[in-house]
């Protein structure tokens, strides 16, 4: 995995890691208040941290019906609503005409630093890791497509009515143009490593952020 550095998000209310040398886009342009965006200095890859309204059970279930045109996605058992919420957030990234292919279905993971710091009386914190590929028709030629691989982490904060999201996006096109499949695979490994590192290091320092 690439080297990482510790990073504060949302004014220090949340802490985690980002790849060493990546650029905080807020130093270049305005970023929405609910989002932190980091840019690779060498590729078009991005790392996004978002705070969103918690997806309701009804919204999560409705997502499954809207994905009937996609290949079957395994969602079952006690985590089925939370897994469907992952799909809701991922599907929300799609534009009209996009297709989404599941590479790694949502799997529950332990998120130790957030779980241990949660306010007393809070419902258990649940987190889910997954990976998908988005395919988008090109505007100049709809017979051609651009593909982005997205590795994600969803942390569900029930008591705070919040979904905390991590997206690491790796566009394939720049590597395809260079015939650099190895470079793409290496970038995917960086994405997997950073999401894994955030599972271990992500920490909420100020729970008042969600009030």
UniProtKB/TrEMBL annotation:
Q: What InterPro entries does the record tag this protein with?
A: Mog1, Mog1/PsbP_a/b/a-sand
**Which Pfam families does the entry link to?**
Mog1
GO (cellular component) term, any one: nucleus
Q: Which Gene3D superfamilies match?
A: Mog1/PsbP, alpha/beta/alpha sandwich (3.40.1000.10)
Q: Does the keyword Transport apply?
A: yes
What biological process terms from GO does the record include?
Answer: protein import into nucleus
Q: Which GO terms describe its molecular function?
A: guanyl-nucleotide exchange factor activity; small GTPase binding
Which residue windows are coiled coil? none
Give start-end of the signal peptide: none
Listed A to Z, the keywords are:
Protein transport, Transport
Q: In which family does this protein belong, per the annotation? A: Belongs to the MOG1 family.
Q: What's the protein name?
A: Uncharacterized protein
Give the organism the record lists: Penicillium arizonense
